[in-house]
Amino acid sequence: MRRVVFLVQPQVYLLDLAGPAEVFHTARDFGLPYELSYVADEPEIITAELLPVRCATTWPALGANDIIIVPGKQCATLEDVNPSERALSMLRAHHRQGGMVVSVCAATEALGRAGLLDGRRCATHHQLQDELAARYPAAEVVRDVLYTVDGNLATSAGIASGIDLTLHLIATWHGPTTAGRIARALVVYARRNGSDEQVSALLRHRSHLSDLVHRLQDVIDERYTEPLRLAELSRKFGCSERTITRRFRDATGLTPLRYQQALRLERAEHLIASGTTVEAAARAVGFSDSRTLRALRAAGRTAAAVAS
Question: What keywords appear on the UniProt entry (predicted)?
Fold first, then answer.
């Protein structure tokens, strides 16, 4: 069981709190081992939207596998983000033992006050970037990105980007298929990467109204590492191979094979970024050897260069 503890401060933004909480709550509904709790210095916290929230006042025992998330709060300046020394001590202790510490929006300031930002990449709301950089010159404030992950420290730009960050963590720990399912359950059709506006292949081609194609995509998402032949899909869904290909292309702009390759490529890139060799990544996502993966990666780099 992995415990997720939200450190709730007065004037917390509801979406900063509820967005990441809903991601992990939905992950639990999908059978993943998460337990959520909410801790504050007082038993009742008034949010920025004036809604009272009840919290525990004692911290649960935490291990290195657990997560502390600090949602952002309404503030005119980072000086207004003033967690208690008890809360800062918990952040330091948890981070020291290797636990993940996450902030949303202005709450990056809480990580700074705990002494966790020095030498680390971090993000915050775009209106607070200059102030954060001035307050913590030893930190690398990455501007105009949705989120950053630097070891066991993760920070997001604010408000809805807390959802993007927590979906990214789910994808890292449990795979992009699981993260995509959670995003779909939340009706989040634009899960974004931290550094740019590119969305996951699992969601990029889901903004259509074809039930048939959605069901086809569900099969491919589930079995993207396996050989999938049009004849098999045709029998499963009771329509011709030509109809499947036409309907799929009309809805997504891709053939079923190209969609499967996009899923494989995205997962392979994630594995390679995590230290896996190209050969091992190719095998893990279903390619018989690394040549196809290398060709797809090269084609993607060429397309990106042309687009820029």
Answer: Transcription, Transcription regulation
